[in-house]
Design brief:
The chain has 255 residues and is an alpha/beta fold. It has a single domain, classed as Rossmann fold (3-Layer(aba) Sandwich). 42% of the residues lie in helices and 15% in strands. The protein has helices spanning 19-30, 46-54, 69-83, 106-134, 156-176, 202-210, 224-231, 233-236; strands at 10-14, 34-39, 58-63, 88-91, 138-143, 181-188, 243-246. The protein has a 7-stranded parallel sheet with strand order 3-2-1-4-5-6-7, with helices on both faces. Strand 2, helix 2 (46-54) and strand 3 (58-63) form a beta-alpha-beta unit. Helix 1 packs parallel to helix 2 and helix 4 (106-134) runs parallel beside helix 5. It is globular, with a radius of gyration of 17 Å. The N and C termini lie far apart (44 Å). Keywords: Oxidoreductase. Belongs to the short-chain dehydrogenases/reductases (SDR) family. Pfam families: adh_short_C2.
């Protein structure tokens, strides 16, 4: 028995054009899932689709605004027309900022909260209802952050938004469990990517290394196993409401 066989499943990856989102999508495809790659501009997800197809997998690119419920409802219809439905939802849109607390403007707060938290709530409404009503179970995986608690310095709004993701994950795990729809979150440590490049100063990197027992950044490919595990009902069928750390020990460090 292959614990990680995803053949016959459709995975929707919101934020599938990003560095981490793309690699997680590739992992789902490698284990047999048909992958719907979603980005505000579908063309940005084409390189990920091409890598998936070159490896023998199946993927298609879709455009959608993750903070628009109407757009997500349209997206659901398009994916249903392609494969018949959504079995796995991976929520990984993200935006960050290093603005000092007293300088944060309402516009910045609203943007980060919309992209990082509101999008997760809306996607869980649209695709969670689809999974519950469909009656075939499902897996929702939210991408959180080590800054979700305790919060990291200098990223106030980002930390608050990811704390909200953790709370939603555990709340919805309870709500959706009777329908066999599992809701979990992955908490990545430090994986250098475009969205956090601005805050990784030399001083910041030194501090991160002091607080990471493995004393290195994560390689993006090291998130792939966690995603496939949580996506597979065979592998993690009794796992819901979990916050799975992939952080090199960062969350275990005190002094």
């Amino acid at each position: 028995m292959n614990l990680f066989d995803l053949k016959g499943k459709t995975a929707l990856v919101i934020g599938g054009s990003s560095t981490l989102g793309g690699l997680m999508a590739e992992a789902l495809a490698a284990y047999g899932a048909s992958v719907a790659l979603t980005a505000r501009d579908a063309a940005k997800a084409v390189p990920v689709r091409e890598r998936i197809e070159a490896a023998g997998g199946q993927a298609r690119c879709f455009s959608a605004e993750a903070t628009s419920k109407a757009d997500l409802e349209r997206l659901l219809g398009e994916v249903e027309a392609w494969t018949g439905g959504v079995d796995i939802l991976l929520n990984c849109p993200g935006v960050n900022s290093a603005t000092p607390f007293f300088e944060i403007q309402e516009e910045e707060w609203d943007k980060i909260m919309d992209v990082n938290a509101k999008s997760v709530m809306l996607a869980c409404q649209v695709f969670g209802r689809h999974m519950v009503d469909r009656g075939q179970g499902g897996s929702i995986i939210n991408v959180s952050s080590v800054s979700s608690g305790p919060p990291l310095s200098r990223v106030f709004t980002y930390s608050a938004s990811k704390a909200a993701v953790n709370s939603m994950t555990q709340f919805l795990a309870r709500e959706f469990a009777p329908a066999r729809v599992r809701v979990n979150a992955v908490i990545p440590g430090f994986f250098p990517a475009e969205q956090n490049r601005a805050i990784l100063s030399e001083e910041r990197v030194a501090s991160i290394m002091r607080h990471t027992p493995m004393n290195r950044f994560g390689d993006p490919s090291e998130l792939q196993g966690a995603i496939v595990y949580l996506a597979s009902e065979r592998a993690s069928g009794f796992v819901t409401g979990s916050l799975l750390r992939v952080d090199g020990g960062f969350g275990a460090m005190t002094i």
